[in-house]
Design brief:
mainly alpha; Growth Hormone, Chain: A; transport; membrane
Amino acid sequence: MLEKRSMWYVILIAASAGVAGLLYGFDTAVISGAIGYLQDLYDLSPAMEGWVISCVMVGGVIGVAMSGFLSDRYGRKNIMIVSAVLFIISAIASAFATSVTMLVWARIIGGFGIGFASALSVTYISECAPPAIRGRLGSLYQLFTIFGICATFYINYGVANSGSYEWGMEVGWRWMLGYGVIPGIIFLILLVFVPESPRYLIQKGRDSEAFKTLSRINGDEIAKKETQEIKISIETEKNTSVKQLLKPGLRMAMGVGIFLALFNQVIGMNAVTYYGPDIFRRVGFENNTEFLATSIIGSVQVVFTIIAILLIDRLGRKKLMAIGSSLMAIFMVLIGSVFFFEPTNSGPLLVIFIAGFTASFCISMGPIPWIMIPEIFPNHIRGKAVGIATMFLWGANWAIGQFTPMLINNMGGAFTFWIFAVINVICFVFVMTIVPETKNKSLEEIAELWKPKNKNGKLSDEFQTDLAADSRG
């Protein structure tokens, strides 16, 4: 059991790293308020509208891909500091953009920062957190993401109500994007006071510094044990490569990790987040009430994400994802029906259905993939595997941002949301058939799940051959 002083220390450093979620949440939500003004100001086509929103994901994918290499060389903390600086620069450049091209480049720079932070925040937390509370501390990134989304929706609403539509088109959207300086500065200041990851310090031969941090978290006895375990893990990783993820015992784990990453994005939540005000305008919201409706959805996200954190270790990951994906499919059918039958007089009904979908997402496919993806891989290959899965997540995020306005424009709202309903049904099937339950299992027990067995319950010959080859290599 952690001492009270140690508990508060680890919560402090985990929360500081988790604030990276504010950057992701802000950027995800702020563009939904600005895009309507930008569309009129620059006469954007649906494809260009999608590009302005999704271009940040290009920087994000590259940032995620580079984060592992850079953090191993320069440290988790230092690269997260770089991510905060890049986000601040992006917010300032976006606010003063004089063309669509300049805005796109500013957002790509911000994407680099968010990509670095999203990959390293959870990694840093998992390397510092005691096993008993690792899951809850790891969920702080998602919680801060939702706080960032909700707060930004209200910021958009406040800015939209600060002047006429013409003012918003010339100046208001600049204030919306410029407010990104605030979460960037908060993240930067907090990082100054947190220690470097013990794992990185040991990797660089700075054992005494690592022991000091581990001792402050868990006490001297556990710190000694963890120091040795980290050293063994680092030695093991020297003989690992991405090719191992294609071998029996890890192929399935990699498949599940990619599945969780993809379905965190493609089930439709980001379509609502990115294009919420536009969606509500299509059913009669006006005079900035579309921003208020979007803010209500943001509040639902916060409430149900907190509920999810309380339920994850009680009900289990698999059960919550199954319940959530089935409910999301139902709500997507209902949302599509609103657009199909009476799109101009069903505003309150649409708010209820989207709120129901959002609540279902936030107790299932919202926070759980962020927790499970690091859980399902063995220590020696976790960093590489999580990086690959996160790249798929960002790629799917880009696709949703890019193609949603094109789908709505060409196929209509009804068929667009019905497509998302089908995707949620597929998600339910995959959760029920291939995703394991990791509730109350140690990381070692989870690793055992992937080892292929023969009819006698023993390790398969192919797996044992690969294992022997790896140990020799």
